[in-house]
Design goal:
By secondary structure, this protein is α/β, with parallel strands linked by helices. It is built from eleven helices and eight strands. It has an eight-stranded parallel beta barrel, surrounded by five helices. Strand 7, helix 10 and strand 8 form a beta-alpha-beta unit. It is globular, with a radius of gyration of 17 Å. It starts with a strand and ends in an 8-residue tail after the last helix. The protein binds 2-phosphoglycolic acid. 2-phosphoglycolic acid (PGA) binds next to strand 8.
Length: 251
């Protein structure tokens, strides 16, 4: 019932030249994917990557967006600027933005609502730190994030949630299949409480954090995991293997 969704997050990597070359390499490898496929790229690369991905099944997404339509917000990107290039997805509230750039649950909430109002799909990130997991407060943290980040959202089924344990991002340390499944099932349950159980069944929830070609099959086999948000492995051909997680792959 939920169509799997694999998205890359290039973060502050690639250039127009290397990005277009990667998209060219990936295009034939992902064309028969059974899941939705996207690459979220730095804002300045969006025009060139949109062009590189034209006519393919790779959608281009952004890594952030401001909630105001326009104005004196130096360095920010608006919904209209993204829509002009046909951007479909916008990552919101990535833990790196929360950690290094002062993103709070309140600003995540504003951005999420602005992306929805503009007719795009937010990929809204939540997740606990290592300290929080070790102190047994993972569910408490996720409950707070989901409650505040989704406040006032009218149709939660239009939001993609990325569960990204902060301790697994870029560390090579992946959550086990069981940890990821258990936590994502909790997220779904919480969405059911905040909205309605039927809506929760429809929400796409991705796992993110060192997901790669070797561990994607096991993670994707979990009943509540509907996809992945991929950092490092989206910068190379390996991304195609993740997209084809359900197919036989010859190295
Ligand atoms: P990673 O990044 O795959 O490099 O751990 C994931 C993310 O931050 O979205």
């Amino acid at each position: 019932m939920r169509k799997p969704f694999i998205a890359g997050n290039w973060k502050m990597n690639m250039t127009a030249e290397s990005g277009a070359a990667l998209i060219k390499e990936l295009t034939p490898l992902v064309k028969d994917a059974d899941c939705d496929v996207a690459l979220c790229v730095p804002a300045i690369l969006i025009p060139a990557m949109t062009k590189a991905a034209e006519g393919t099944n790779i959608a281009i997404g952004a890594e952030n967006m401001h909630w105001e339509a326009k104005g004196a917000y130096t360095g920010e990107i608006s919904a209209d600027m993204l829509k002009e290039y046909g951007v479909k997805y916008v990552i919101i509230g990535h833990s790196e933005r929360r950690q290094y750039f002062g993103e709070t649950d309140e600003t995540v909430n504003k951005r999420t609502k602005a992306v929805l109002a503009a007719g795009m799909t937010p990929i809204m990130c939540v997740g606990e730190t290592l300290d929080e997991r070790e102190n047994g407060v993972t569910e408490k943290i996720l409950s707070r994030q989901l409650t505040v980040d989704l406040e006032g959202v009218e149709d939660v089924t239009k939001v993609v949630i990325a569960y990204e344990p902060v301790w697994a991002i870029g560390t090579g340390r992946t959550a086990t299949n069981e940890q990821a499944q258990e936590t994502i099932a909790y997220i779904r349950k919480k969405i059911g409480e905040l909205f309605c159980p039927k809506c929760a069944e429809k929400v796409i929830i991705q796992y993110g954090g060192s997901m790669n070609a070797a561990n994607c099959k096991g993670l994707m086999a979990q009943p509540d995991i509907d996809g992945g948000l991929i950092g490092s492995a989206s910068l190379k051909k390996e991304f195609a293997q993740i997209v084809n997680y359900n197919k036989y792959w010859e190295n």
